[in-house]
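Researcher: Please predict.
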Amino acid sequence: MNQKIKLLLSCMIFTSGIIAQTNTKIIAHRGAWKEFNNPENSIASLQKAIELKCYGSEFDVRRTSDGILVVNHDPTFYGDTIQTHTYAQLNEKKLSNGEDLPTLEKYFKTGTQGNHKTLLICEIKEAVKDEQSTQLATLETLALADQLGIQNRIVYISFSFEVLKTIKSKHPEAIVLYLENNKSIDEIVAQHFDGINYHFDQYKNNTNLTQQASKNNLKIGSWTVNKIEDLEILIQQGVEFITTNAPQQFLEKVSK
């Protein structure tokens, strides 16, 4: 192989690597909190993710006993079960930075102010007690997004297949990504879901997974990726959406 061919191949390899990294989209997991000492799922962590120009900021939705949609990962808030307490009862305790327990309405409004491009990655959590409450939270989330006119700023994710089916039935144009690797690609395609968003171990343990999803024109995401070496593996496999607790570090990595 002569020197010119070697140089050409080297350039092609380098360019393909740059393209792969450019196409990698970084999502802040529960907002940009860990790197900046913000409470997770707080308004401050959302605003920081927007400031960093993350592709998206992920957050979790739950419903109080008096029908207020709030943003919190765990089913409890300072030990109180969200589903069985009113918002006023829960909000007697504040986040570590003094913020109120964020309502979804405030989160939606804050996250869609201005002309930034950071999307809201909205995970609807299953209720502790019954499926009916989960479906109610889903319908009310959709209604609020419609009321505010921000459906095009949201990507919906869930571990509940039924939640995503409901979203697609009410809003066929909504983007939904399934979080649990317990359905076949054919089942996901049959429901007209837009993609998968699995734990990174699922891709490491099944290197054909991204190929199967890509052949079916599905979007491919992964959570919660916090090590650079895992990020590099997923990029090589063609995973395009990376959810992480280290968005600043990952953004710097993929921009190089």
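Model: The radius of gyration is 19 Å.
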